[in-house]
Amino acid sequence: MVIEKATTKDAEPVGGAESAPARQSAIRNPQSAIEEAAGVRLRRALLWLTLILLASTLVALWVGYQRLDLLALRTDERARLIFFELRLPRVLMAGIVGASLGVVGAALQAMFRNPLAEPLTLGVSGGGALGASVAIAFGMGARVAGLPVIFVAAFLGACASVVVVYRLARTGATVLPGALLLAGIVINTIAAAGVVVLQYFADYSRAMQILRWTIGSLDIVGFDLIWRMLIFLVPGWIILLLLARDLHLLAVDEETAHSLGVNVRRSERLVYVASSLVVGVTVAVGGTIGFVGLIVPHAVRLMFGEDVRIVLPCSFVLGAAFLMLADAVARTILGAGELPVGAITALAGGPVFLWLLRRQQRYTAM
User: What are the C-alpha distances in Å from 24 to residues 7, 41, 262?
Assistant: First the structure.
């Protein structure tokens, strides 16, 4: 990652009378000019991605086993029922989960300074799935202090995975990329084995419910679950987006971030908690939908550059659009049948992961 430098072109406005004062202001306060240029680029990027998100939403609402004529919703009671109870909630769920995984992936890649970091490869999704599976296997469908037990269990599992992976990969002030991926793979393997054991001993109905978690699905009826998710997701989103500047500096190195006033340990703890909360909730609801947090941030970087202050919010928007389209493919590719959306994202993300691993192989030697 490279901290951007303001260019004369960025700082100099058109017009002879105002050119000299503008140049002098930029020279006196270069950091302000850099941040202003980043803000302009962020607004442009968000404008383009918002248009992509709107187009993706319309496509996802229209396609399916039964295509809906949006103009017929005024008169067709059956079409209204399908649209408002099934199609619209599912599209919104896909957007929420995709946005969550996209922003978490961008945050983890910046904090660990590793382009291969994302909730699945770091074991975060596996830990969350194991926590949710424990709650399902033991029939913990109740609430504790108003919180669904499955949400709490998934959050604790995801949080534990992040801490273990980070501790194993860190040597002094350095996080080893190879050790990071290896630790994430091991945690995922242990979590997957734990899920299989729970399925084996659980009764048939609970075993099938756990199976749903392992493949990822966005089946939903109505909006009640969405409102409950947002209570936990919105604070996590806000924390990660507010940390964009700190993560931008951490993406260079910890010493640079510290010298520029970043409380490194505090920022890392906040990223741990927020990422675990967001991934825990999405896993508890949609299962282990992998590679969204890998594909989306890299697509944003290819389009808009490496600045984490731009990558983080743009990954949020593009993640929503990406999973909406992936879910639309999952709902339509088999006609009357339906594939798990996790299978679509894995088929798309697996080759991308291998390509990135090939590019980064010089860093993965142990």
Answer: 13, 22, 28
